[in-house]
Amino acid sequence: MAIVWATNNDLEWINEQYKKVDFMPSYLENERIAIVTYKEEYAGLGRILYVNEDEAEIGGIYVLEAFRGISLAYELVDSLVQETKNSNLKEVYCLPFEELRSFYEKFGFKEVDYKHKTINNIIIKKYHWCLDHYDKKVLLLTL
């Protein structure tokens, strides 16, 4: 298992994966995308979307079916969380499906009530898009 950081050469593969699971596409301009490999094959991906110099969102976590059950998602999210901590961001958001709450809590994420806390408008818009777009409940978490 290894984590590699995506380049423009990976963008077509990345967006093919995101299209399969109906996630928003990536563009790399304000993102850092991690690709998890297993036995030198691309096995999954996740991204940090930099909202501004102080805030980011970790998302787009997806492990290909053939590689599930071997803790690759954990390694992937752990790498993304460490990257955000190394960047000294003031706020890191995550918008996972509700059934993934306990998984993200392992990394220190906590649910936030955006009605009682100021949240970046870009994140709020994406959160509402997710609520309208997916049949599953989506959470708004912060690190």
UniProtKB/TrEMBL annotation:
<protein>
    <submittedName>
        <fullName>N-acetyltransferase</fullName>
    </submittedName>
</protein>
<dbReference type="InterPro" id="IPR016181">
    <property type="entry name" value="Acyl_CoA_acyltransferase"/>
</dbReference>
<dbReference type="InterPro" id="IPR000182">
    <property type="entry name" value="GNAT_dom"/>
</dbReference>
<feature type="domain" description="N-acetyltransferase">
    <location>
        <begin position="1"/>
        <end position="129"/>
    </location>
</feature>
<dbReference type="GO" id="GO:0016747">
    <property type="term" value="F:acyltransferase activity, transferring groups other than amino-acyl groups"/>
</dbReference>
<dbReference type="Pfam" id="PF00583">
    <property type="entry name" value="Acetyltransf_1"/>
</dbReference>
